[in-house]
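U., I forgot to send this yesterday:
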Amino acid sequence: MASTSPEVDVDQLLKQLTLEEKISLLAGKNFWETVPIERLGIPSAKVSDGPNGARGAQFQGGVRAACFPASSCLAAGWDREVVSRIGVALAEETRSKGAICLLGPTVCPHRSPLGGRNFESFSEDPFLAGKLASTYIQGLQGQGVSATIKHFAANEQETRRFTMNVNVGERALREIYLKPFEIAIKEAKPWALMTSYNLVNGTHADMNEYLLQTVLREQWGYKGLVMSDWGGCNSMAESINAGLDLEMPGPTIHRKTEDMKRAVESGKIDVKAIDARALAILKFVKQTGKFEHPETTPEQAIIKPEHQKLIREAGAQGVVLLKNERSILPLKAKELKSVAALGLAKECLAHGGGSAAVNCHYKITPYEALERVLGKDVKLEYAQGAQVFRNLPDMKDDLFDLDGKPGLTLSRYQTRDFSGEPEAIQNKETGSYMPIETRCAAVRIEGTYKPSVSGSHYMSFCALGPSKLFINDKLIFDITKNSDDPMGFLFGGVVEEKSQVDFVKGQEYKVCVESIAPVSNPNNKETLSLLDGLLGVRLGFMTQEIFEEDLLASAVEVAKSADVALIFVGNTTSWETEGMLLFPATSSKNRLCNMLTNLKTGLDMATMLLPAHGSQDRLIFAVSAVNDNVIVINNTGVAINMPWLDRVSAVLQAWFPGQEAGNSIVDVLFGTVNPGGKLPMTIPTSLENTPSFGNFPGDVEKLQVHYEEGIYIGYRYYDKYPEKVLFPFGFGLSYSEFKIGGVKLQQTVLKRESSIIVQADVENTGSVAGSEVVQVYIAPPKSSVDRPLKVLAGFAKVTLEPGQLKTAEVEVSFDSAAYWDENSSLWMVEKGEYEILVGNSSANILAKEKFSVDEDVTFKP
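Result:
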């Protein structure tokens, strides 16, 4: 639990701090820690990226960690008890990395299925997101580890995220985009909150006084720490005065001591504001128990069997069964003679890309899980069937450094023109070099490539700063500017320049990379200043034979004779991630290569189609033409197009289930787990039929995005246009059948400071145990105000044995009946007759009951 040590009086500590010491507290010590004040025994506090694991300090590699299901997968489970257990487990994982604060959960609603980080958040519905986030936070903080709710606010896209201005109306802001934060902050009281990169109605979130002071602190009563996203502090005085306590990471960029002191002297910053910011940090350090345990323990990789079991369970619970024609599922191993495992069957899509990625303890692929279930009596054949890579693999084979050892020779220079002797020389095993801590002016990476096969092979290249690649002194790539998205570079989301180079087997080719450190450009807000001066290059490679191999024909052959064809599709971490931006195309001899280099996706996804260029869709169409028993298992954090839906027998949506992904999916395929997942988002028929179409990601040249759909995102929009829906919000099939009825309201009049208890009988009328989610919506009375047809107001997950009946109870609060009145800037509950709608999806309402509100009521947030 959190520290309540009476010996530590943070108010008295604040009085003992000098102005310089107070200022020093207001930015990080380094990338992950706050500044300690040794004179007064104030320790530093370490944070770690989340939200589906505690990665530790290293972006890539580093100490291994447990990878839990992504938030979209947890939301699909609709199970608060499981989410609470995951919060508890994540607290243990965070401590194993020497940290006391996890940077999660993410709660921004899914505005578009193209959102690059939708998988990190829960849902299109603010109520569902807020309730699950609240449970997650309570589980985490109940163990004395801080949660960090993020990104505050209106951070629904990755495109131009550092500079995009979100123009959103007050009603939509309150009812949709702030609502999950409001629910979680009032219910769970997270100890930390992270601001977003973007501007909201003209002002950066980190210095948005309306959001940080008026809404967050004054109206919601928030008492916790407010930190910036990494590199997301945009000012000195403005962010201090607006209420941003902590600039991350450190060392500071905007809050330098002498600059701050001059700002105090000139009156730009009030000392009281500095005191308030410093006090928030001291309270945070105390709350996390750091005064009692000031040491930062070394990072450890601890595999906990109970966490393994929980990850497998939660991943399976999140699987949504979308189609099950002829009850083909669950499969029965004893009835099978041959199974074709196709597509990404040998890939474990445990997580999305970006800061949510962890170096998993292990990853269970579907193919590995299938091998264990099927044993030796069933013939299991694999074929990839489709190329889905976005970037080429690191170049590492057949490379030799200047001493003839495998790898390349890397030399560091403190001069940008490579003059003088290098200060350090080391061997690199690959052509990629990505430092995080070590800074220098330039690097030269050189050696020899001795190809083991001839061909016009494919090479790719990207870098943080101006860089060149030479083969036999011929310039192949010439990057003349800083990376537009350095975080994307770190997370593997930047799409590289690609070209073909002719090689002859056995000949020697001199390889030389020259890279210069990025130069900070204060006028370019699009770059992330925290990576200024860091060098990094990535050299990718693939032989012509592998790049151009026809994978589809072999997959079709394998599928022809199989009893069932399992096609695993989805988004790898380079396709669904934060921070992706493209370099301009270079010359290419190959049409596919040219398509890759010219793909205009920006930072979010460009299409709802599976990558790459229809290859996975073609695989499904081709296999379904030769096999009548095709089951598609899709592993994405977002909704996708399914042009092949009527051609396949079954479809499972698996999200990103964590390190036990293969086991979780196969548990559902073979009925060890009866799928009980429900969609936390609507799957539309097409991108053109989404409410934000035409306004996502906005005008990237003018850096403006307009939320013109207002409150009508997700099912709020689709309720009015049901023809645009492929699968509705809250939908999910089971291997059993359930009956929901006997709906009763314990109260039929709703008053302020009260609630209505909704009771519903749920019966398992099928032959196997399973779970059903009772979803309770409110339909408003007739009104002069434009309101959604209904909104989610409560839910309960019920697990039943065959033939068993239980009564579910769902509490519907007074606040659930409110809308935001822009004229009064207050919440309004209109008098009139409302309906309680009970169903198992937003489109399948099974019972209705009426209640009333006797008078108009307005109330403050």
